[in-house]
């Protein structure tokens, strides 16, 4: 199926849960609200013509422009995105779902934005969500064991956020 055909099925099955779409992108995608993620991904997995049986990856992206000269040209408000890439072995197609989140929950710096965990639909989400949590600082509600995966348990911050400041020292080891 083409991206446009997949989106047409999603629009029929999910209606207003699809906030925006891009069928002509290299990787066709839809954008959904965090509260609609499980329903949309359930349709991707269970609808007979779609059969997305593999969650390839989850990516966290920070859209924060730090250069004051570029802020006006950026064309977007600072936000986080969680990007899900799916594949279907039987149907031989792929698709992307994006969730846009505020940089901080309730505009409280340090309060991580939240999105539901997909571990109940796709077991592979377990480690993928832990990686995004660890590096990008997104909290996955309902995850069975959300904890750091790549960094030490006592590490402070999330290094893929654009405003992250690398510590000069960690456990007596000097950085840069």
Give me the side-by-side strand order of the main sheet: 1-2-5-4-3
Q: What is the overall pLDDT average?
A: 94
Please indicate the count of domains. Answer: 1
Total helix count? 4
CATH superfamily: NADH:ubiquinone oxidoreductase Nqo5 subunit
Radius of gyration: 18 Å
Helix content: 10-25%
The name CATH uses for the topology is Beta Polymerase, domain 2
The class by helix and strand makeup works out as alpha/beta
Question: What is the CA–CA distance across the termini?
Answer: 50 Å
CATH class: Alpha Beta
Annotated CATH architecture: 2-Layer Sandwich
Secondary structure tally: strands? 9
Poorly predicted runs of 5 or more residues: none
Taking the sheet with the most strands, its summary is:
5 strands, mixed
Proportion of residues in β-strands: 25-35%
Question: What's the order of the H and E elements?
Answer: HEEHEHEEEHEEE
Estimate the global geometry from the Cα principal axes.
globular
């Amino acid at each position: 199926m083409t991206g446009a055909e997949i989106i047409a099925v999603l629009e029929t099955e999910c209606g207003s849960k699809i906030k925006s779409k891009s069928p002509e992108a290299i990787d066709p995608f839809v954008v959904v609200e965090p509260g609609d993620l499980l329903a949309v991904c359930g349709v991707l997995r269970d609808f007979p013509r779609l059969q997305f049986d593999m969650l390839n990856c989850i990516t966290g992206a920070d859209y924060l422009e730090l250069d004051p000269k570029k802020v006006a040209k950026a064309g977007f408000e600072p936000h986080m995105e969680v990007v899900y890439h799916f594949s279907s072995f039987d149907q031989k197609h792929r698709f992307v779902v994006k969730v846009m989140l505020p940089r901080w929950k309730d505009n409280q710096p340090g309060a991580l934005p939240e999105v539901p965990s997909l571990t109940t639909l796709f077991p592979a989400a377990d480690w993928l969500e832990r990686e995004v949590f660890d590096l990008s600082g997104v909290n996955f509600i309902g995850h069975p064991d959300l904890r750091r995966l790549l960094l030490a348990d006592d590490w402070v911050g999330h290094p893929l956020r654009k405003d992250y400041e690398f510590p000069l020292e960690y456990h007596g080891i000097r950085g840069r």
